[in-house]
Design goal:
Elements: H1 2-7, E1 13-15, H2 17-22, E2 23-33, H3 37-44, E3 48-49, E4 54-58, E5 61-65, E6 68-69, E7 86-89, H4 92-105, E8 108-116, E9 122-131, H5 134-153
Antiparallel strand pairs: 1-8, 2-7, 2-9, 3-6, 4-5, 5-7, 8-9
């Protein structure tokens, strides 16, 4: 019984590290996700990959694609498809704002973080993002190296 409590955790914080390198975030939103029972169990085990995930609009609804949630080990024939598209839950104003800015400026909606809130619900932090050019990526790496050196020297 104690092993079962350690296996599932409410302290889940899965980040998409490559998104910060590839994109410049302009605005962030927190959205709920429509999940099945075995998906939330896999999330609580930390078996999620946000690396290639992106969001699209379909019939005035926001969907996240290519977010891989590994199948639950103990799931039977009720187990979920690992890379199915999942609906995101936002209020109407937020959806309209996202759709309007995405169409006008040619921006991308990228999942940045998956976490479980205080009530035990899985939430996805999404960002309205603009793609970085090669020189922007180099500047990011230089700044990261400088920060690491400053921290190492204790300044």
């Amino acid at each position: 019984m104690a092993d079962k409590q350690n296996k599932f955790s409410n302290n889940i914080n899965i980040k998409n590290k490559s998104a910060r390198y590839e994109y410049e975030f302009l605005d962030k939103f927190i959205a709920g996700i429509v999940l099945t029972g075995t998906e939330i169990k896999s999330i609580r085990e930390g078996k999620v990959n946000l690396q290639d995930a992106f969001c699209t609009f379909q019939n005035h609804e926001l969907w996240v694609r290519q977010m891989r949630i590994s199948p639950y080990e103990l799931g039977t024939h009720y187990n979920h498809d690992a890379s199915r598209i999942r609906k995101l839950l936002l209020n109407k104003k937020e959806l309209q704002k996202l759709k309007k800015t995405k169409e006008e400026k040619g921006l991308t909606i990228v999942p940045t973080r998956l976490f479980i809130n205080d009530r035990g619900l899985a939430k996805l932090e999404i960002a309205l993002a603009k793609g970085k050019k090669l020189h922007d990526k180099r500047d990011t790496l230089k700044q990261k190296d400088l920060d690491r050196e400053i921290k190492r020297l204790g300044l």
